[in-house]
Amino acid sequence: MAQGIDTYEDFKTSVAEPDFQEFMADKGNLRKAWHCAGSLFHLHDWVYGAHKTSIDAKYTYKDDGGITQPVTRVEHFANSLGQAHPDFQLIRGIANASKHFSLRTPPPGRKDPPGMPSHAANTYVVGTVFQPGVFQSNAFQVGDVMLAASPK
What is the extent of the structural domain holding 73? Predict the structure, then answer.
């Protein structure tokens, strides 16, 4: 039997949530981090497609000139969400850097959150361990996906 994903609810429960759970269970895995970021970011495409009329009526964003504009396309919706929620903008950057390898330099005046990636190589796994000998040798070893500062 074939599985279909026809709605944003289907995408959320069949793709985004499993990717998120897999990443949360293995935070040091860069592949899982990139899959999670991509799924979380692209959920906005599905929501916009389902609710375009009401989103266009309610959401705005500031363009690169600082002028408030109405949302009329899915890219504008992503801009609106990214400006209101810095974590969404970081997820957007990670998803796009992993997909496109490198990102365009933002225009002057754009306010991206600290740590915004500019390149896939800005995303890496870093391990955290406590001082050896104080605890059992592997008791507190964890890994997290991190962003390096974007080169200027």
Answer: 8-147
